[in-house]
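Dear H.,

Thanks for agreeing to be a second pair of eyes. The structure we're designing against is below in token form, covering all 255 positions.
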């Protein structure tokens, strides 16, 4: 039983490596589908922005409300904007926003490609001489690689603004002063590693969604299974990549 499970897992890893190689090969092929790529950027980026914006604002708002009483007891209330900005930009913002994107984007891609697989549309593309990997997979993964970091940056800005709103519930702090305090605590070593790892988050989200949908089984139930497994696996990969990125950042930047 254990050997059978191990063989199945090894086969799954081999299939994923083969899928990555097909993606890498088709990225540099002629005839890139620019229209489909821009459409996916619109779907992944613009349509995800309201959810990401609300999430980012609430993150900063709640984190400030939770931090102010404790910081006030230590006489360090003026450090709240910087603490919130560093925490959001370095760790909380990229991870939470990527998990939100994993739930929304990976499930959408998995369900869409899964339904195309069930309806045999992907097989029809192959028979007609089209390249489904280049049209369906490459465009979606590249759109995720570009849009997830941009969504994270916008969410970070809204989170800091949410912290400003929370600080002014019981105070009277100007917007310019709050942002000066917030960004004076943020360095390039905080922003760059966080931005780089969101690129890998975007790749993981796009790849898992495409892989699960493209390789789903026949039958209507497989569409739901593809969407569900895409969310679970993409979320897991976000956590794993973040753990690796934190260790590398500590070794490279902070030592």
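And this is the sequence the design step returned. I haven't edited it by hand at all.
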């Amino acid at each position: 039983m254990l050997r059978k499970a191990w063989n199945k897992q090894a086969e799954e890893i081999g299939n994923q490596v083969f899928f990555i190689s097909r993606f890498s090969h088709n990225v540099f092929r002629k005839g890139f589908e620019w229209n489909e790529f821009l459409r996916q950027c619109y779907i992944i980026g613009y349509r995800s922005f309201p959810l990401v914006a609300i999430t980012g604002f609430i993150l900063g708002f709640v984190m400030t409300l939770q931090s102010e009483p404790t910081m006030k007891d230590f006489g360090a209330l003026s450090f709240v904007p910087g603490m919130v900005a560093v925490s959001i930009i370095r760790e909380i913002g990229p991870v939470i926003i990527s998990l939100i994107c994993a739930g929304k984007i990976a499930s959408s891609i998995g369900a869409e490609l899964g339904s195309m697989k069930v309806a045999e549309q992907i097989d029809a593309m192959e028979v007609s001489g089209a390249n489904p990997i280049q049209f369906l997979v490459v465009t979606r993964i590249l759109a995720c690689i570009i849009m997830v970091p941009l969504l994270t940056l916008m969410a970070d800005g809204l989170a800091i603004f949410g912290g400003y709103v929370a600080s002014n519930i019981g105070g009277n702090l100007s917007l310019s002063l709050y942002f000066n305090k917030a960004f004076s605590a943020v360095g390039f070593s905080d922003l760059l590693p966080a931005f780089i790892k969101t690129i890998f988050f975007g790749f993981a989200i796009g790849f898992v969604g495409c892989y699960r949908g493209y390789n789903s089984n026949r039958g209507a139930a497989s569409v739901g299974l593809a969407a569900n497994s895409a969310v679970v696996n993409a979320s897991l990969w976000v956590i794993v990549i973040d753990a690796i990125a934190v260790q590398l950042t500590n070794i490279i930047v902070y030592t």
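Two observations from my side: The chain has one domain: 47-252. Residues 47-252 form one domain.

Warmly,
E.
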